[in-house]
Write the structure tokens for this entry.
Amino acid sequence: KISNVAKSEHAAAQTKTMFAALLAVVRLGATAAALFLFITPMKLAATMRFERSVGGLAPLPFATMALNGFVWMVYGFLRRDWVPTFVSNAVAFSTGSFALWTFYQVADKPQAQSAARRVTAILLAAIFVLFCWVREEVIASLPESSVRQTEDAVAMQNHVGQLGVIITVGMFASPLGSIAEVIRLRSTASISPLMTMASVACSSLWTIYGLLVGDVFLYGPNICGLVFSMLQVALFAVFGLPPSSAAGKSGVKVPRDAPVPVANLGGNKPADMRV
């Protein structure tokens, strides 16, 4: 009996170790995919600067990426979850903001300039409102403040997490506005293959990780992101890949609604909020 108990405990320990190793590998891959996805818009910003034109791009995906990154930065700050939630989404906020600023600087048509101004104003207003909403909890989370895990603090973390999920799903869906154009023109020139595949990888890995840890704030939005990304893959399968030539002078449009989703990183269970 003692031997059987020992064997059972040893098997349980091995299973736990293997699960921990699998979780670490999946999380590492998911984090790397998310960071790649966050940095990818820099290529679009570089193209805009080089061509001195926004081509067919729209400013909304960059603004939603920045807003999503800011929301999850606040969430990570409230939970003191610096890596990967805060750091990764700080990259998302920075690259989204930089791409939006680049768009505004090189916008070569009055309509594009007006759109950039409107989107930027909405982004700044949303950030201001969010900060005012969570200001007290942010102050309470500062290093010199005592760490509080009251019901109100947990509720605030949940509210910010839920807001982040809504924005994340909306940002995953933002490229779908180009589907009608793709079908009408029978061309995928308005969709970025690189960012679509990065989105598929990122969404898949974070869905797996979320399921492994039983975290609905993780796998929920990323399942939606995976579905939206696979719809774009289906468009490539039907209509083929877009021309590889550059935008602007080549006459080929830069993808208008290039997907810039942000994965929700970190263990964000509604029922288990940690600081």
The CA atoms of residues 7 and 13 lie 10 Å apart. The chain is about 75% helix and 0% strand.
